[in-house]
Amino acid sequence: MPTNRQILLDNRPQGEATVSNFKLVSVQTPDLQDGQVLVRHHYLSLDPYMRGRMNESKSYAAPQPLGEVMIGGTVGEVVESRHPKFQPGDRVVGMGGWQEYSVVNGNEPGALRKVDTTHVPLSYYLGAVGMPGVTAWYGLVKIIAPKAGETVVVSAATGAVGSALAALAKARGCRVVGIAGGAEKCAYAVNELGFDACIDYKQHTTLAAMSKAVKEACPNGVDGLFENVGGLVMDAVMLRMNAFSRIAVCGMIAGYDGAPLAMANPALILVNRMKIQGFIVSEHPEVWGEALNELGTLVAQGKLHPRETVAQGLEAAPEAFLGLLKGKNFGKQLVKLI
Amino acid sequence: MPTNRQILLDNRPQGEATVSNFKLVSVQTPDLQDGQVLVRHHYLSLDPYMRGRMNESKSYAAPQPLGEVMIGGTVGEVVESRHPKFQPGDRVVGMGGWQEYSVVNGNEPGALRKVDTTHVPLSYYLGAVGMPGVTAWYGLVKIIAPKAGETVVVSAATGAVGSALAALAKARGCRVVGIAGGAEKCAYAVNELGFDACIDYKQHTTLAAMSKAVKEACPNGVDGLFENVGGLVMDAVMLRMNAFSRIAVCGMIAGYDGAPLAMANPALILVNRMKIQGFIVSEHPEVWGEALNELGTLVAQGKLHPRETVAQGLEAAPEAFLGLLKGKNFGKQLVKLI
Asked: What is the extent of the structural domain holding A231?
């Protein structure tokens, strides 16, 4: 059996996460038992939710155990199988974790899913046609539920979720405004991802300045906000939200490293009769089929062509992950493992 | 025609509202024109929303104009009518304002509604079987939507909204926990209004202490919060809310007088996949019939017998209103005008 390199969570962050929280080890992959499948990972997905799992505190999911392989989504190919539904060469998506190989129980529902790479590149199943894409779909379709002509804002616009959100919202006739860090990302959002406008939050460091920028980009106010960040950006958008507007809360990345960030003016929830709802996409398996179908179609039609930032080799994962938390990636952050 | 005393908004509050913001005047009631009805008010309702109208700032409703009669709900009797649907002696509910008489256009939809006082005292149509009662009904039934066995918390428990909410939630098999100011109010909530427990917020002045009190009163956590106050109390309850819990935001009284109060930890919205929704009951006329029917039945069955605090005479209205804003009333605050 091949040697498998793994990255474990070695210790929990004190404040900011660092590379010293992780540990690289090598192990032999075990012999397969009946019903098991050996998958060689081609790509590992890096996502902000992983930072939350590194803490011990109460969250929606159990913390990542110390000394175990970091959790993470993977795509790859079956290299050996003792399960009748999987054959060597099959392309599969799973939660293989931060390692080069994984042994999967083929009978566990949802643990391993075969995918078709005829029209959709394999790596997209970790992004636009995977969990981030379905995340955008759920927040937009099930919580924001926009009408044609409404304005939808998304923070972290050029990430995997934001890219998918833009395509999905444009398909529904919305004005879509992104928020991203830096002129390059903003230009990309407008020129490549189909955003109607994009606000560079690095140019607007106060609540008043950010709120003014939102007003200029959203002349009819904001009807829906897909929130990935929290803090000042969210406060500024809230000041421009219309009556009966909706916020889908998908992430609060700015608060992960330290004390919780406050919401400056919750009275706006009442004044504007807003709805704010948090969600975790993995809790809504009933929408995945419909969502992935629409997302795959948008990719095949060329209406959704997300950017990827690809780090090379498992050993590059910790640095790439810390960069993701600081917004250094551009589009979906992946680690190529072959 | 009789003399009519009125209270006008004379000037806007600078910070806290004071009696000097109001002005008492006397005018003659005008002769009726075709379609008009003259109503003598028996009771004027005082409600927290009036404080918001005194400001000039953007809110969900237009500000109260200076120099005009303060807005307010009233019950009374028809004393003269030039409209075929209304006869002298009819008991009616309307938005007559802070004055002893009002002239109402009988053709305006919803402006004047005849009520039956056989089983429900006239004043209750301003409280439990009126706007506050429907407010409790909408937030509980349409936003919190509790299942039997769930725990629902309401701040301002002994007010008109809180009283109705307790009866409505008990009728749905919930554990109902109130929050009120002082031992007397808390005892009343439990002994008379049917609350399972009531927390005296004056005994718990820090977030940690209040949160501990909520934990003790809600051993299974909190599934629904009907929020009338905001600030520290809301922050403390949020720390005890369960996955998929709901907050109906009806009031943020603590923020009316000054800077907006922050929400300490909005990341809980994501962690617990919460839904928070603000609402204004007057925007949901479609529920009033069903809600008033249930509330009137609960009163007739003796399951809802709210307390009233009654000030005597129009001239007492400003002081009574300022007392309401400070929580000095006990139950529904009314002004008796006859």
From this structure: 131-282
